[in-house]
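step 3/5: co-fold with 3-methyl-2-oxobutanoic acid
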Amino acid sequence: MKEQVKIFDTTLRDGEQSPGASMNTEEKIQIAKQLEKLGVDIIEAGFAAASPGDFEAIRKISEVVNKSTVCSLARALEKDIKAAGEAIAPAKFKRIHTFIATSPIHMKYKLRMEPEEVIKRAIEAVKYAKTFVNDVEFSCEDAGRSEMAFLKEIIAAVIEAGAKTINIPDTVGYRFPHEMGEMIKELKDFIGERAIISVHCHNDLGLAVANSLYSVLNGARQVECTINGLGERAGNAALEEIVMAIKTRKDIFDGIDTNINTKEIYPTSRLVAAITGIEPQPNKAIVGKNAFAHESGIHQDGVLKHQETYEIMRAEDIGLDRNAIVLGKHSGRHAFKKRIEDLGFTLSEEEINKAFERFKVLADKKKEITDDDIRMLITNEIASA
Ligand code: KIV
Ligand code: ZN
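step 4/5: write tokens
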């Protein structure tokens, strides 16, 4: 039987913490709808207590998303949890994600709390979150540098209080893959079936994806990640890399799969790049501009003879249409509308009409309008809404 790894996307929360990546409510709604189309199991829509704008965006996303679970982050504080509970209230499937730091350095210098107080606060937070939703996730912030005995103690306590998912963040991207794997294995033996183990890996040493994959191999059944690997500092584990690694190396991930519709990966990546203005590096795995390009003659010749000589994945599988028809000034409204839908945007008829007028103006100046031109056009329209 197939085992599922849940994909928890935090582009709209941790991703938005990338310098320069802040998004307005309309932009977040566009991304949330596309994440749902991509098949993401849980969308972390923001941090409700962070600002009125974050609260409003989470609430609006909760009104329009009905297949994915909508989640808000909350510190282990009553006011944060209340804001999270209220923001996600309209969602069909909803989750509160509460956290507190568990590493000696964070407890001593950041929280200035004794370990016993941290456990007490965590229990109270989970119990309070349960008064809003049944689906509560608890994170041991900086678990990557926490002591195993303390992790087990706090995890047992929050499971008892009702947490359904236990997230193990490598908050500062410190762990190596084999260490991450060993930690998850030990925690899996300890937790058993009492809760789902999740991981949340940062990329400070470029190991976030490897750490996430080793965690899955050792029992994690939820992975937290972002589109294009956006996130604090060097970012979070990239969703597209985790999903395509699991799909491409079925021999290693025997029987384990995700719910992601991989054909929506490329459109989602482009949408996030257009909205945030943060372009993935050209050689970025899966979605970089060069990821499926072959420059050398030997490689080009090989691929023409047999695609698999130099390609381990098919561009079509991530939704990269190498033969996409370029639109121009003779293209009609119907073709234009279809293209913006394919690119992941959901617009009203009135918005489409306005965008189509702007498209025609641009098409008069530019011979060929690329998908990126259209994304730019639409994101400008959304930003000015
Ligand atoms: O990196 C981290 O520890 C986090 C938590 C809030 C889950 O983002
Ligand atoms: Zn994080």
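step 5/5: annotate
The CA atoms of residues 198 and 222 lie 4 Å apart.
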